[in-house]
């Protein structure tokens, strides 16, 4: 007999017939006449109830059917008389495929803290919360490809091992094949990377943008979606050392078209999750609501998670320039009452407290901030006519802060080379990047969206470590 997944059984597929299901036991309860076993196989948040009558299954047979055990069950799929599920399986055979010692298995019935579950990241997939989070993540990843392919973008695989530091932030992991206990040295005593397998110093990519830009100069519209690495030693709830970034790059786009695309894209993947993973998101919303009940009145959320998401997909994002954003902050009561930790003046990089004020207190919706001072943004962003600002945009989301960083790119060779020199980049080394300006350069734009930050937004998870299956953070790479 072929196995049917729980998700399909719960829709009544095969009602009145014998079915085979396999999965892990969540709970077992009952009395001397009947035992109810809740089985989950990861296909849905819901469990399938298996009913084992005492006349067919002795206690001896059922003793290894404990929480966490893997079992295979055959039986008839029937309409359930009990509350909570429409269908259940009347068991004819139960086989324990893998036992789970109740004394040792950590995921017993009681609720566990997210901190504890992070320590057993390999088992946390078996909880309702993480089952829901990673099914939502999966749906959103699928929606990323769907969105761009429907628009005719080409999925371009940019390299993981690179020589360029697109962000110039110096947050790169080195990649080397040299024996670092005994490395070859130059005459000056530096490690001689010329003898490395790659023949030079290389890093794990911090962004696929530059490679994406050169590909867009042939395909018009491309996107990358892959792992990105930043050796930032920051222990925040928004940063990982390894995260996934979506980076579209479009020829013949200006900043406004770039912002329009980003807004449409964000709404699309959120809407997709709401449509395809409704039950998972409802479960996560319920989880947040429970958490909220424990908080004092004034700290509680004004809206449920679902209301928040629907508000975002159904309304236009606010758009302001950096200069307007600074004015809003300077004129706020928050500023006048000296409630910001960091001072505000034109030219500062917005701190997360400033971003959160704009999004959560002032506009109460996602905000696209454009035209930042050139000195706080990367060299490749297009210089505006005022000579002081660049055609940059950041998208800020409630509860999260920055989810997107993007810009129109500098296509003018002379200005680009001058900006490179100013930040200490040798234009010779970037010959391949500059070639696309030299030969048929054109206005173009793109952005980078941190995938985990959007998954955080949709799932309502407070810590970014809880939306990536195997988080990589400082001091954390157990497996
Ligand atoms: P932040 O200000 O939050 O550190 P950033 O400005 O350094 O972000 P960008 O270089 O603009 O980041 O990268 C584009 C996007 O990638 C960001 O908007 C964010 O969504 C995401 N991102 C950046 N760094 C991280 C990280 N360490 N972990 C997870 N996502 C990240
Ligand atoms: Mg950063
Ligand atoms: Mg930033
Ligand atoms: Mg940024």
TrEMBL record:
It comes from Pontibacter akesuensis. It is found in: Cytoplasm. Belongs to the class-II aminoacyl-tRNA synthetase family. Its main location: cytoplasm. This is Asparagine--tRNA ligase. Gene3D superfamilies: Bira Bifunctional Protein, Domain 2, Nucleic acid-binding proteins. The keyword Hydrolase does not apply. SUPFAM superfamilies: Class II aaRS and biotin synthetases, Nucleic acid-binding proteins. It catalyses: tRNA(Asn) + L-asparagine + ATP = L-asparaginyl-tRNA(Asn) + AMP + diphosphate + H(+). HAMAP family: Asn_tRNA_synth (MF_00534). One of its GO terms (molecular function) is nucleic acid binding. Keywords: Aminoacyl-tRNA synthetase, ATP-binding, Cytoplasm, Ligase, Nucleotide-binding, Protein biosynthesis. Homodimer. Residues 134-469 form the Aminoacyl-transfer RNA synthetases class-II family profile domain. GO terms for cellular component: cytoplasm. Its EC number is 6.1.1.22. GO terms for biological process: asparaginyl-tRNA aminoacylation.
């Amino acid at each position: 007999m072929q196995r049917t997944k729980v998700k399909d059984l719960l829709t009544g597929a095969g009602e009145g017939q014998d079915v085979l299901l396999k999965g892990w036991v969540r709970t077992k309860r009952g009395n001397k006449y009947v035992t109810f076993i809740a089985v989950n196989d990861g296909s849905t948040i819901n469990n399938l109830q298996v009913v084992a009558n005492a006349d067919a299954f002795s206690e001896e047979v059922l003793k290894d059917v404990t929480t966490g055990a893997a079992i295979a069950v055959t039986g008839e799929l029937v309409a359930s008389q009990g509350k909570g599920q429409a269908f259940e399986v009347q068991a004819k055979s139960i086989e324990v495929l893998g036992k789970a010692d109740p004394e040792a298995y950590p995921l017993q019935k009681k609720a566990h803290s997210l901190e504890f579950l992070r320590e057993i990241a390999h088992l946390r997939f078996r909880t309702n919360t993480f089952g829901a989070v990673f099914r939502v993540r999966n749906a959103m990843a699928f929606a990323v490809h769907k969105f761009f392919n429907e628009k005719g973008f080409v999925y371009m695989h940019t390299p993981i091992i690179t020589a360029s530091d697109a962000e110039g932030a110096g947050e790169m992991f080195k990649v080397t094949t040299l024996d670092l206990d005994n490395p070859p040295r130059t005459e000056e005593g530096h490690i001689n990377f010329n003898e490395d397998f790659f023949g030079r110093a290389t890093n794990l990519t911090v962004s696929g943008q530059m490679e994406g830009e050169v590909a867009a100069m042939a395909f018009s519209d491309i996107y990358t979606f892959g792992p990105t690495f930043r050796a930032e030693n920051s222990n925040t709830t928004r940063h990982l050392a390894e995260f996934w970034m979506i980076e579209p790059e479009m020829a013949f786009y200006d900043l406004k078209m770039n912002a329009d695309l980003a807004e449409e894209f964000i709404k699309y993947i959120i809407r997709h999750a709401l449509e395809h993973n409704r039950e998972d998101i409802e479960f996560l919303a319920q989880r947040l609501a429970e958490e909220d009940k424990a908080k004092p009145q004034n700290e509680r959320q004004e809206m449920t998670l679902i209301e928040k998401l629907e508000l975002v997909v159904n309304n236009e994002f606010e758009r302001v320039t950096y200069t307007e954003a600074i004015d809003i902050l300077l004129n706020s009561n928050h500023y006048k009452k000296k409630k910001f930790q960091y001072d505000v003046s034109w030219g500062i990089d917005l701190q997360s407290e400033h971003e959160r004020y704009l999004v959560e207190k002032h506009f109460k919706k996602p905000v696209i901030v454009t035209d930042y001072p050139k000195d706080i943004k990367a060299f490749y962003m297009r210089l505006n006519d005022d000579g002081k600002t660049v055609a940059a945009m950041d998208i800020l989301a409630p509860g999260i802060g920055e989810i997107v960083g993007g810009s129109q790119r500098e296509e003018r060779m002379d200005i680009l080379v001058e900006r490179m020199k100013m930040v200490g980049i040798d234009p010779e080394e970037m010959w391949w990047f500059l070639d696309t300006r030299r030969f048929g350069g054109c206005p173009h734009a793109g952005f980078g969206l941190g995938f985990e930050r959007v998954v955080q937004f949709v799932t309502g998870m407070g810590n970014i470590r809880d939306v990536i299956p195997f988080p990589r953070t400082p001091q954390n790479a157990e497996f």
